[in-house]
Specification:
By secondary structure, this protein is an alpha/beta fold. Helix content is 61%, strand content 12%. The protein has a domain at 6-16 and 62-349: P-loop containing nucleotide triphosphate hydrolases (Rossmann fold), CATH 3.40.50.300. The chain is built from twelve helices and nine strands. It binds adenosine-5'-triphosphate and magnesium ion. Magnesium ion binds next to helix 4. One of its GO terms (molecular function) is 4 iron, 4 sulfur cluster binding.
Length: 461
């Protein structure tokens, strides 16, 4: 039976750390030796990375938004394409081993195998979960591990005959409506295959890493391969591969038999470029204790098979840490890039908005000025026109008036003078007539008086 050694662990750790491209990029840089060509190349690779990121973001727009489970720090999924390879057994013991390795850490167990829930049996739990004040289900707890499973919500032997949508809503309830309190790790026991449930879990919650379980025979490895590829596709880091039931040791003669093969999972891990997390033997104890609801990590903590599990758990958490570190670095790089992009976008928008508003303002100002100028000049024009009209009217009327007055005066003067003249004339005429007639009369009178005298004189003469 192959046990883990600390040297293997440190080697795996080194590999995990060297995988982080963010760290490598920093280490590769030699200050002062960067040529123009290198700069150009690195610029091109940054551009293509940015383009890839953009493509990823565009594809992610169609997917549901990942939302963390309230109170849970890290989620580890235990999966495999194949059924019956020991996923649930590994998930249960992994949750217990994570807590056994570090007493300060808390772990929970979520069984999303809706059609065949095994956690109630493996953890020796029964009953319906109670509801918390905010109407969320309170997990059932055994061995210090809070657990939630569809098995708590349906009768033991009743078949679950659900169509896809009902399964999705059940998974959604298990992910969102459980009151986990505060957990360092939530180990999720996946159903076999790479179907709707797996996709739904990976797309709805952020997952720190996936552990793939497989037995060493080809038919199981084929499905494990599919499982690992699925996680890669949905951007979930694969922490590594566990080879379960790798070797059987006869309790009587201690002879070791590789019932399902010896090295299949290790080779697959090499092919996929993922870590090989270790061998768990096919052991009677594991099967018996699991069936009794007493997982080996708590029922036989000092056994050899448990030490493997404990080592594996330690390894998981260490790998998990480096995966988390990597994803944190990646996340902060992404965040930085997103912030930079949004800052650029924002400033561009701001600039164009400012420019636009400046243009708008100046256009408005200009048109206002133009309008007011036009209005003013129109008003001025009208005012001038009006006053001109008024003036000319006044002038005309004044002229008319004065003309009328003048002509009236003239007329009256003429009339008066005519009258006067005619009066004078008349009186003159009258006077002269009178005078004439007087003269005449006096002449006549005189002559009448004088004539006889004259006649007498003439007679005398
Ligand atoms: N290392 C082991 N040694 C002995 N028995 C094991 C070992 N691992 C698992 N078993 C047993 O194998 C059976 C199947 O295991 P388990 O239910 O964990 O598989 P699974 O992959 O979760 O199955 P499913 O795909 O149906 O969910 C169980 O009875 C379990 O006790
Ligand atoms: Mg199972």
């Amino acid at each position: 039976m192959a046990l883990f050694t600390y040297s293997k662990l440190s080697h795996l750790l080194r590999l995990a750390v060297h995988k982080a491209p963010v760290l490598r990029a920093g280490a590769d840089m030699k200050p002062g030796a960067v040529s123009w060509l290198q700069l150009k190349r690195s610029q091109r690779s940054v551009d293509s990375k940015a383009q890839q990121e953009r493509q990823k973001q565009q594809m992610a727009r169609g997917l549901p938004k990942q939302k963390p489970i309230a109170g849970v720090k890290q989620v580890i999924v235990v999966a495999s394409g194949k059924g019956g390879v020991g996923k649930s057994t590994t998930a249960v013991n992994l949750a217990l081993a994570l807590m056994a390795n570090d007493q300060s850490k808390s772990a929970g167990l979520l069984d999303v195998d809706v059609y065949g829930p095994s956690v109630p049996r493996l953890m020796n739990l029964k009953g319906n979960p109670e509801l918390s004040d905010d109407n969320r289900m309170v997990p059932l707890t055994n061995y210090g591990v809070p657990c939630m499973s569809m098995g708590f919500l349906v009768e033991d032997a009743s078949p679950i005959v659900w169509r896809g949508l009902m399964v999705m809503s059940a998974v959604e309830r298990l992910l969102r409506q459980v009151d986990w309190g505060s957990l360092d790790y939530l180990v999720v026991d996946m159903p076999p295959g790479t179907g709707d449930v797996q996709l739904s879990v990976t797309q709805n919650i952020p997952i720190a890493g996936a552990v793939i379980v497989s037995t060493p025979q080809d038919i199981a490895l084929l499905d494990a391969h599919r499982g690992a590829e699925m996680f890669k596709k949905v951007n979930v880091p694969v922490l590594g591969l566990v080879q379960n039931m790798s070797v059987f040791q006869c309790p009587n003669c201690q002879h070791q038999t590789h019932i399902f093969g010896s090295d299949g999972a290790r080779q697959l891990a090499d092919t996929l470029g993922i870590s090989f997390l270790g061998d768990i033997p096919l052991h009677l104890n594991i099967r018996e204790m699991s069936d009794k609801g007493q997982p080996v990590v708590v029922s036989c903590p000092d056994s050899a098979e448990v030490s493997t599990l404990l080592y594996s758990a330690l390894l998981y958490s260490t790998l998990l840490y480096s995966a988390l570190l990597y994803s944190t670095l990646l996340y902060s790089a992404l965040l930085y890039y997103t912030l930079l992009c949004s800052a650029l976008l924002y400033s561009t928008l701001l600039c164009s908005t400012l420019l636009y508003s400046t243009l708008l303002c100046s256009t408005l100002l200009y048109s206002t000025l133009l309008c007011s100028t036009l209005l003013c000049s129109t008003l001025l024009y009208y005012t001038i026109l009006c006053s001109a009209l008024l003036c000319s009217t006044l002038l005309c009327s004044t002229l008319l008036y004065s003309t009328l007055l003048y002509s009236a005066l003239l007329c009256s003067t003429l009339l008066c003078s005519t009258l006067l003249y005619s009066a004078l004339l008349c009186s003159t005429l009258l006077y002269s007539t009178l005078l004439g007639s007087t003269l005449l009369y006096s002449t006549l009178l005189y002559s009448a008086h004088f004539y006889p005298t004259l006649l007498s004189y003439i007679d005398i003469m």
